[in-house]
Amino acid sequence: NAGVMQNPRHLVRRRGQEARLRCSPMKGHSHVYWYRQLPEEGLKFMVYLQKENIIDESGMPKERFSAEFPKEGPSILRIQQVVRGDSAAYFCASSPPSRAYGYTFGSGTRLTVV
Amino acid sequence: DQQVKQNSPSLSVQEGRISILNCDYTNSMFDYFLWYKKYPAEGPTFLISISSIKDKNEDGRFTVFLNKSAKHLSLHIVPSQPGDSAVYFCAASGGRGSQGNLIFGKGTKLSVKP
After folding, report:
1. Rounded to whole angstroms, what are the CA distances from B36 to A4, B8, B66?
2. Cα gap A46→B90, rounded to integer Å
3. Preferred mutation among B99, B101, B108 to probe A, highest tally of A CBs within 10 A
4. What is the pLDDT of residue A100?
5. What is the DSSP pairing of strand A65-68 with strand A10-13?
6. CA distance A90 to A76
7. Backbone angles phi, psi at A77, to 5 degrees
8. In which band, very low, low, confident or very high, does the pLDDT at B86 lie, cut at 50, 70 and 90?
9. Which pLDDT score, from 0 to 100, does residue A6 have?
10. What is the SS3 assignment for B92?
11. Which residues of chain A are within 8 Å of residue B107 when distances are taken between CB atoms?
12. How far is CA A108 from the centre of its chain?
């Protein structure tokens, strides 16, 4: 029973390019959360999704960032026209429906914008 | 506005002694608190949690204490072991509009010296 799988582990993008981060939740988990950790900071909530639904995107920047969790396939966090300030570690977590707080994190994707 | 604060960026403890990590919060609506442990290049791992209806929860070497009147919680590790060296994040949930997302502190880096 694999844990939460995130890929790629490391992603380098030039300013202005697009970044796509993928997250496959644990088997049986239908809730996905995305968090971002800037250097020397704690994790900041970005978005909470269920299959085909965005439940809470209050932590998402208004522009350039989007997230989806389709019926089939992984959840995708998409960052368009990346800037240096987007460089961070992006963590995905998943949980079963009955335990909203007891979620499991993936190992993260470290995005570096050059 | 930081709702969850970990005021000590780092803590150094001798092996076998007690480690005490502290966390303060400002939102009285929080009703669930968690501690996560994070090693470099890995995702956070859930350690222990406590509901606001309790003031103590114990799991092996780890005990979390909650003082609601002071809006303060602490994690005690006894006895501390070198393998406990990691960054510890305090997190809270249950504030207004909460959908299960967590508010994290900035973390405390614990070093346990042999």
Report:
1. 16, 16, 16
2. 18
3. B101
4. 54
5. unpaired
6. 11
7. -105, 125
8. very high
9. 97
10. strand
11. 42
12. 8
- Chain A residues with CB under 8 Å of B34 CB are 101
Handedness of CA A23, A29, A32, A36 (dihedral sign): negative
Contact B102 A101 (CB under 8 A): yes
Is pLDDT above 90 for B98?
Answer: no
What secondary structure letter does DSSP report for A84? G
**Binary contact (B46, A44; C-beta < 8 A):** no
Q: Both tokens of residue B110?
A: 């614990």
By three-state DSSP, how is residue A85 classified? Answer: helix
For residue A86, give the DSSP letter: G
Look at residues A4, A10, A37 and name the one whose alpha carbon lies nearest to residue B89.
A37
Instruction: Name every chain B residue with its beta carbon within 8 A of the beta carbon of A58.
Output: 97
- In sequence order, the 6+-apart residues with CB closer than 8 A to the CB of B53 are none
User: What pLDDT, in 10s, does the model give residues A35-94?
Assistant: 999 988 889 999 999 989 999 999 999 999 999 999 999 999 999 999 999 999 999 999
What single letter denotes the amino acid at residue A78?
R
Which has the closest alpha carbon to A103: B8, B84, B20, B46?
B46
pLDDT of residue A40: 80
User: Given pLDDT bands bounded at 50, 70 and 90, which one contains residue B99?
Assistant: low
